[in-house]
Write a structure and sequence with these properties.
The protein has one domain (4-139): OB fold (Dihydrolipoamide Acetyltransferase, E2P), CATH 2.40.50.140. It has 2 helices and 6 strands, in the order E-E-E-E-H-E-E-H. It has helices spanning 55-64, 116-120, and strands at 4-10, 15-18, 25-34, 46-54, 70-83, 89-102. Strand 2 and strand 3 (25-34) form a beta hairpin.
Length: 142
Amino acid sequence: MNKVILMGRLTRDPETRYTQTNNTLVSSFSLAVNRRFVRQGEERQADFINIVAWSKLGEFCSKYFKKGQQVGIIGRIQTRTWDDDQGTKHYVTEVIAEEAYFADSKKDGETAGNTFENTFGNTAPGNMGSDFEMSSNDDLPF
């Protein structure tokens, strides 16, 4: 299974382009995701994760996401390689977004929307809470 759930702040506005072959919209941006623990006497560190969103989701991200905004992304990790003009091989690991959510707290006058917290609650990844039960293998369709 390849599933990633991230919440972080955009380091820049999404960059949008279209593929040459079939003119498909692709939007890319980077999220600063804080690490869970802070070493005593040090500042909190963050990882900078590259995100790619295609088609309608990419259009949504490019239209509504802005630098500094906190967002939630659900997707999968993908790696790719290519050789540049000098023959140097480059490796990239990125998250292909499948879902995107606003995760900033509501501003005054806003109504409850489709935020990361509304979708997932306060459950931390890896801690599904008391409602989560594993089914027996007899319940699986395969």
